Amino acid sequence: MPAALLDIDHVSKRFVKQPNIGERIAGMLGVGPKAETVRAVTDVSLSVAKGEVVGLVGESGCGKSTLGRMIAGIYTPSDGKILFDKVPVAKSQGRRTQKLTTRVQMIHQDPFASLNPRIRIGDTVAEGPVAHNIVKGRDADSYVADLLGRVGLDPSYRRRFPHQFSGGQRQRIAIARALAMKPDLLVLDEPVASLDVSIQAQVLNLFMDLRQDLDLTGIFISHDLGVVRHVSDRVAIMYLGRIVELAPTSELYAAPNHPYTRALFESVPRIGVGKKSFRPIAGEIPSPLHPPSGCHFHPRCPFAGPRCKRETPPLTGIAPGRFSACHLNTGGTD
Ligand SMILES: Nc1ncnc2c1ncn2[C@@H]1O[C@H](COP(=O)(O)OP(=O)(O)OP(=O)(O)O)[C@@H](O)[C@H]1O
């Protein structure tokens, strides 16, 4: 196994959810809610090797974006640490870390929101690399023209404004802007979720080509199992802030182990198969304000026993390179 470029070590993130003004006044009178803690990410450990792409999958609210933002240095972990090339990634770590964060770039779901509508996209793409001395101001124009060509856009488009582009083109611009920083690691947060299916395929293929050409390392966040399968070497399945299964992509899709992973696969509708071929996962996702005891999935799990309510199963090796957090793999559920 090559040395890890990214090391996530027992990382958790909690947010304190403050009551709104009305609730605060009610709180002062002793009848309103108090500040509550959202456990967005809990005790996640993961190493990513250079050149590897790891997919993060899970239902809405399971903590994928929060983990991605911690990796990109946007959020600071509440506990644990994240090392990029052996140096901590966190805003609070000072100048060395700030410089480092240019090596980690994040691409978001909504490319329009991340592009300033009043700035020509050539200037948007050039802004970061000029500010960080990656390219000199006088060379910026040709640098941007080259990058646009690389992401499949006509170099002359650099004089246009964001509203003159389609969704797929904007996402290409967002990729060009991230690549302009010469990153070693890209965190892609639902990068194709807002695009039409045919455009999704184009953007995914572009990512795959760039990945090969530039030897990029990636964290690919998506709720879409099909998309993640296409781009990832390994996949981590998250449930309510924890990784419950981690495996090489082909092995995970051939034989998912964790009951949640299996339920997730069974809940995906497939083209050409009868309506009864998919089964939604039973019950609702519990609130991360009050996660269930033991295994967070136990209230929805068909195999849950008393041990699952009592003990949190650790992520345990079940085969070379495969990990799952389920008591069924370690002596049963009682
Ligand atoms: N800044 C914040 N303040 C308070 N709570 C937050 C904040 N950011 C995220 N959360 C909460 O943390 C939990 C995890 O959110 P997160 O966005 O990481 O999940 P996700 O898996 O990326 O979901 P989605 O796919 O819907 O974006 C959610 O309950 C969310 O409401």
UniProtKB/TrEMBL annotation:
<dbReference type="Pfam" id="PF00005">
    <property type="entry name" value="ABC_tran"/>
</dbReference>
<dbReference type="GO" id="GO:0005886">
    <property type="term" value="C:plasma membrane"/>
</dbReference>
<dbReference type="InterPro" id="IPR003439">
    <property type="entry name" value="ABC_transporter-like_ATP-bd"/>
</dbReference>
<dbReference type="InterPro" id="IPR027417">
    <property type="entry name" value="P-loop_NTPase"/>
</dbReference>
<dbReference type="Pfam" id="PF08352">
    <property type="entry name" value="oligo_HPY"/>
</dbReference>
<keyword id="KW-0547">Nucleotide-binding</keyword>
<comment type="similarity">
    <text>Belongs to the ABC transporter superfamily.</text>
</comment>
<keyword id="KW-0067">ATP-binding</keyword>
<protein>
    <submittedName>
        <fullName>ABC transporter ATP-binding protein</fullName>
    </submittedName>
</protein>
<dbReference type="GO" id="GO:0016887">
    <property type="term" value="F:ATP hydrolysis activity"/>
</dbReference>
<dbReference type="InterPro" id="IPR013563">
    <property type="entry name" value="Oligopep_ABC_C"/>
</dbReference>
<dbReference type="GO" id="GO:0015833">
    <property type="term" value="P:peptide transport"/>
</dbReference>
<feature type="domain" description="ABC transporter">
    <location>
        <begin position="16"/>
        <end position="265"/>
    </location>
</feature>
<dbReference type="InterPro" id="IPR003593">
    <property type="entry name" value="AAA+_ATPase"/>
</dbReference>
<dbReference type="GO" id="GO:0055085">
    <property type="term" value="P:transmembrane transport"/>
</dbReference>
<dbReference type="InterPro" id="IPR050319">
    <property type="entry name" value="ABC_transp_ATP-bind"/>
</dbReference>
<keyword id="KW-0813">Transport</keyword>
<dbReference type="InterPro" id="IPR017871">
    <property type="entry name" value="ABC_transporter-like_CS"/>
</dbReference>
<dbReference type="GO" id="GO:0005524">
    <property type="term" value="F:ATP binding"/>
</dbReference>
